[in-house]
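Structure tokens please, single chain.
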Amino acid sequence: MIVSPRPVSGLRAPLVVAAAHLLACAAFLTVFLIRRDGLPDPVATHFSGSGGADGFTTLGAFPYEVLGMFLVVALLCTGLTYATRGHRLLVGLGCAVAGLLGAVAVAVVVNNAGAETAGGVRLGPGVLGVAAAVAAAAAGLGVPAAGRGHAAPQAKAAPQAGPDDAFAEPAPRFVLREGESAVWTRGAGSRPVLVGGGSLLAAGAVLTPLAGWAAGLGLMAGGVVLCACFAVRVTVDRHGLTVNVLGLPRPRVRIPLDRIEEAACRDIEPLRDLGGWGYRAVPGRSGFALRSGPAVVVRLTTGSEFVVTVDDAATAAGLLGALAERERERAVPGTGTDATAGTTGPAARTTPPTTTRGG
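Here you go.
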């Protein structure tokens, strides 16, 4: 038995990221309230590459705009951390962003304090160096604070991505005779993806009154897409493998039986295997990954792979392999009518007409 680490789960990781942003806000507000009487009106808030001020905000609006920016970024970082189940990379990134923004906001206040006019305020390259150091320190403290997760025993170690390792875990075998039919279907969703979409919508709604529709519209559009596509329905039947957005006939992806070389079950880590969550395409592989865990992995006749994460993936892969094998036998004259020999697993034999539903 091999023990492999699991990503940080639950609310601990997103709470650590949210706390990092809260501390950044507290640091900014503390310095602002202490130095408020010495700040010019307007305040220099944007600086050119040479360090000179080229953008200004009224003193009354300055703290609200900064806090609004913190809120937008905090929503995004916390939502993405929760959506990825506390992935350590995003925990570190979220804490680093909080440290960077907090350091820059404090530096803006300190550099404006005591200036006669905002036009003479400068923000030198040293500020960015200090901000980068603060960001690194925040990430270094945040990742351990989020925890390492608990080790979970697995019968086999999750194979690394790659066509040669994709079929290390064989699916159950099914017997399908000529004239018999079977259907397997199950919904696959991700509450964290829905939370991530809601975070984008909330961040866009906060940013819109601060910076206008152009700034907030992109975030809200991304939120709508995530909320609409947080769940899919996976179906295996005589047509092949079909994946469509839950409750909608379109859009959908269908892999016909004659394009399927082999089907099996394998654990998928979205960031590692597909570069992210949702529908993704990378060289040699594409598919839907709404969470980490078991997935139907289909090797196509072109040599590439299509994957979709879903519960009871082993049963779906076994049935899909049996249907594809029977389809190949039909295409070859003089072959038998049985799709496979030998059975293991539930619902190994069906009688016409039969429907197997996963949920």
